[in-house]
Amino acid sequence: MKSENLSDLDAEKLIAFRIFGVDKAFIDALRAEGLKISDANKLVAFRIHGVSAQMVRSLHQAGYSPDEDTLVAMRIHGATPEWMQELKKQGYDHLELQKLIAFRIHGVSPEFIQKLQGLGYSHPDPDELIKMRIHNVTPEYIADMRSRGMKDLSIDKLVSMRIHGID
């Protein structure tokens, strides 16, 4: 492993490498995808959280160049290339990776978007989608407000209503 040019490689990290399956093949596969990873701790984090060369390749093919921390955050929050493909089907293609992570953190899903579109909210702004989830503006809430005669409410108005306790 010394020949892999890794920083801070010591006995403890070698033990962690063995425990989590960080080996030359894993490192070489990541580097073959363009990662210039040299931090032993990040390699262990990649293994723990499931960052793989295939994931990096898929992201590169989609036009992304994520840094190491973003790759780990994506895996922690479930922002996978497969999930990104589902968002693309709803019209959300090539969003910033940090925005995709925020989608996962706040529960913006392809299903949520599809339900909103079914209610007439065609392609809401990504920040609006996040605000809706933060403030619990759900398709059910929108339908309830409509059943009370409040039609054609903008997303901003719906969020404001929720913030001010209009249930």
- The helix/strand series, from N terminus to C terminus, equals HHHHHHHHHHH
Question: How many strands in all?
Answer: 0
- Mean of the pLDDT scores? 95
Strand content: under 5%
Helix content: 55-70%
Derived structural class: mainly alpha
Reported for the largest beta sheet, the result is: none
Task: Kindly provide the radius of gyration, computed on alpha-carbon positions and rounded to a whole number of angstroms.
Answer: 21 Å
Distance between the termini: 60 Å
Number of domains: 2
Count of DSSP H/I helices: 11
Gross morphology is elongated
pLDDT < 50 stretches: none
Explained architecture:
This protein has 11 helices and no strands. The longest helix has 10 residues, at 11-20. It has 2 domains: 1-77, no CATH class; 84-167, no CATH class. The model has no long low-confidence stretch (mean pLDDT 95). It is elongated. It has helices at residues 11-20, 24-32, 40-49, 53-61, 68-77, 81-89, 97-106, 110-118, 126-134, 139-147, 155-163. 19% of the residues are buried. With 167 residues, it is mainly alpha-helical.
